[in-house]
Design brief:
250 residues; alpha/beta; Rossmann fold; two-stranded parallel sheet; 10 helices; globular
Length: 250
């Protein structure tokens, strides 16, 4: 009935592997007749002023943003040609139980604060940022797959009001009972030097703008049309800390 496109190549290989992955998903959708539900992100918009809405142009200038934008444009063109049925669900940086990669907050902050260690961030730790809870992504993708009126366009996953990295770390630390945890900005020079040795850190320089200025997603279009809502933040924090505590303890 539906193909949920949630796979992604390793970040340093996006430009090389995304086109083939997208082509395969579209071919499978055309052959099977299944609805193609693509999981997208916000890279395709590039730097913007103000909250991001689905009607913004896909105007990314970096290779990762361009390749993500091209993936959806390919699927949408096939949808408009009547060859497939496609829809894209876009999430901001996601976190939650089970997330150990793919999110700046998810992979570093919680295991560090559980041990009382400082948390490093790419940009301004006090600028507003949207964080999307992974179970809400799954709920939205499942709902959209069965809503024919949703197909042919992109939708933003219901997401709670933005919080800065520092505010999120403070909330997570309070939930964990670990006491205050320092949040330190990673200097650009350090990131540049580290990028020489780490392909992942080298790639993150392209999206640093997401943490140097407000990075806020507007999900009002989805909430005005469909039933899924963002999980209350307290529940998100409780489930995330509990999952990480069990994992770190093990």
């Amino acid at each position: 009935a539906a193909i949920h496109g949630c796979a992604a190549p390793p970040l340093p290989q996006w430009a090389r592997l995304w086109p083939a992955l997208t082509a395969s998903l579209c071919a499978a959708a055309e052959e099977s007749g299944a609805v193609l539900v693509m999981l997208g992100n916000l890279y395709g918009y590039g730097p913007v002023a103000g909250a991001m809405t689905e009607d913004l142009p896909l105007a990314a200038t970096g290779p990762k943003g361009r390749v993500r934008a091209a993936a959806w444009e390919q699927a949408r063109a096939l949808h408009e040609a009547g060859r497939i049925r496609a829809v894209e669900v876009r999430a901001s940086d996601f976190f939650g139980p089970g997330v150990t990669d793919g999110g700046h907050l998810a992979a570093r902050a919680v295991p560090h604060l559980l041990k009382g260690r400082p948390v490093a961030t790419l940009g301004d730790p006090d600028t507003a940022h949207s964080w999307t809870y992974l179970p809400d992504v799954a709920q939205a993708m499942a709902e959209i797959a069965g809503e024919e009126r949703a197909w042919g366009r992109a939708w933003h996953v219901p997401t709670v009001s933005p919080l800065s990295v520092r505010a999120m770390v403070d909330r997570l630390a309070a939930e964990a009972g670990s006491g205050p945890v320092a949040v330190r900005r990673l200097p650009a020079a350090v990131l540049a030097v580290a990028g020489v040795f780490s392909p992942l850190l080298r790639e993150l320089r392209e999206v640093r703008y997401q943490f140097d200025r407000p990075f806020v997603v507007d999900c009002s279009a989805y909430e005005g049309a469909f039933a899924v809502r963002a999980t209350p933040l307290d529940e998100q924090l409780r489930a995330t800390v509990a999952w990480w505590r069990e994992r770190v303890g093990a």
